[in-house]
């Protein structure tokens, strides 16, 4: 592979371009300071202002959310899998019709495989600006976002209307919906009754993996994080594993599907035929199928990384009965 071609597949943390008007709650107090990033794939933004770093379709999407302290993302759901891991900061995830069915606090490196069929939201409860990385199943990211009814109603009060074409219209900018476009309908009572209200004891043991547990599991070999036989057993259309300094073999390997590298801690040297680079925490790298690559920590100290590959499974888990 041409070294320059691989460099085009690397998005550096410092080079991420945010969108501050990506979703319907962009003007709603408490949510109006969040930043959305679409890194690989089309993403789920409702705004034409969203920048896409790598538009290639690989079977899943990679994105990120950045928020200052006390800023939250409103209750929503997707038709496909949504997985988050904390890149920096401390985050509270909550779920249910009104966000009161359960909650869990995630620290840096923790990962949450949120099932479909429930409303979910999240909030930065740390003291500094924080970021969470997101994996969304499918090439179209499930066709967008379905918001809890109160989110849509609150947005209208602050000048934003979501059309049934999936686009936002901002009355503060003098925008109006075109002829033939109607407001996005809210979910009816029958649909809302089908939404899950799982408890903490149902969700956390089966959908959350803690960073330090994964560090222990990956002490000598990569830890399977999401997959049919992984710590979080699921078939969301992609699989995730976790590597550390002690578990990555110092040999070249290749995959028959694209692989996304998401460093969590430390510095990782990535080598391929004709080139090499160093990946840092917060960077994202897409390695094309068939390319031989070698990974190794480039400095002493803690080093960890999530790796994501697509699978032939349907792109979305259901709320499982455990």
Question: How many beta-strand runs?
Answer: 24
Instruction: Tell me the β content.
Output: 35-45%
Number of helices: 5
Cα-to-Cα separation, first versus last residue? 46 Å
CATH superfamily of the largest domain: Jelly Rolls
Structural class: mainly beta
CA gyration radius, whole angstroms:
19 Å
The pLDDT mean sits at 92
Give a quick rundown of the structure.
With 322 residues, this protein is mainly beta. It has helices at 3-7, 149-157, 189-193, 200-207, 211-217, and strands at residues 10-11, 35-40, 52-54, 60-67, 72-77, 82-88, 91-95, 102-106, 111-114, 120-124, 130-137, 146-147, 160-162, 168-170, 208-209, 223-227, 232-233, 238-244, 259-265, 267-272, 275-280, 284-287, 293-297, 304-310. Strands 1-22-19-24-18-16-17 form a 7-stranded mixed sheet. It has a 7-stranded mixed sheet with strand order 3-2-4-11-6-9-15.
Describe this structure in words.
It is a single chain. The chain is mainly beta. The chain has two domains: 14-208, Sandwich (Jelly Rolls); 211-310, Jelly Rolls (Sandwich), CATH 2.60.120. The chain is 11% helix and 37% strand. It is built from five helices and 24 strands. It has helices spanning 3-7, 149-157, 189-193, 200-207, 211-217; strands at residues 10-11, 35-40, 52-54, 60-67, 72-77, 82-88, 91-95, 102-106, 111-114, 120-124, 130-137, 146-147, 160-162, 168-170, 208-209, 223-227, 232-233, 238-244, 259-265, 267-272, 275-280, 284-287, 293-297, 304-310. Strands 1-22-19-24-18-16-17 form a seven-stranded mixed β-sheet. Strands 3-2-4-11-6-9-15 form a seven-stranded mixed β-sheet. Strands 8-7-10-5-12 form a five-stranded antiparallel β-sheet. The radius of gyration is 19 Å and the shape is globular. It starts with a helix and ends in a 12-residue tail after the last strand.
């Amino acid at each position: 592979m041409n070294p320059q071609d691989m460099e085009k597949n690397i998005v550096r943390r410092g080079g991420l371009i945010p969108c501050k008007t990506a979703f319907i709650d962009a003007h709603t107090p408490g949510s109006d300071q969040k930043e959305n990033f679409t890194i690989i794939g089309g993403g789920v933004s409702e705004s034409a202002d969203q920048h896409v770093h790598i538009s290639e379709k690989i079977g899943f999407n990679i994105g990120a959310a950045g928020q200052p302290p006390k800023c939250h993302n409103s209750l929503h759901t997707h038709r496909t899998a949504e997985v988050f891991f904390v890149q920096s900061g401390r985050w509270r995830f909550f779920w249910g019709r009104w966000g009161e069915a359960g909650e869990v606090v995630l620290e840096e490196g923790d990962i949450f495989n949120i099932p479909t069929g429930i409303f979910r939201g999240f909030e930065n409860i740390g003291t500094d600006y924080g970021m969470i990385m997101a994996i969304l199943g499918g090439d179209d990211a499930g066709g967008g976002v379905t918001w809890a009814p109160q989110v849509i109603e609150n947005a209208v009060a602050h000048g934003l209307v979501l059309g049934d074409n999936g686009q936002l219209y901002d009355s503060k900018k003098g925008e109006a919906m075109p002829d033939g476009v109607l407001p996005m309908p809210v979910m009816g009572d029958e649909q809302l009754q089908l939404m899950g209200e799982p408890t903490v004891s149902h969700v956390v043991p089966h959908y959350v993996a803690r960073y330090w547990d994964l560090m222990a599991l990956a002490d000598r070999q990569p830890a399977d994080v999401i997959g049919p036989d992984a710590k979080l057993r699921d078939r969301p259309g992609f699989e995730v594993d976790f590597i550390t300094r002690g578990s990555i073999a110092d040999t070249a390997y290749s995959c028959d599907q694209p692989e996304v590298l998401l460093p969590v801690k430390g510095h990782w040297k990535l080598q391929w035929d004709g080139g090499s680079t160093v990946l840092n925490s917060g960077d994202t790298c897409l390695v094309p199928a068939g390319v031989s690559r070698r990974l190794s920590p480039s400095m002493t100290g803690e080093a960890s990384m999530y790796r994501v590959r697509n699978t032939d499974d349907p792109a979305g888990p259901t709320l499982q009965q455990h």
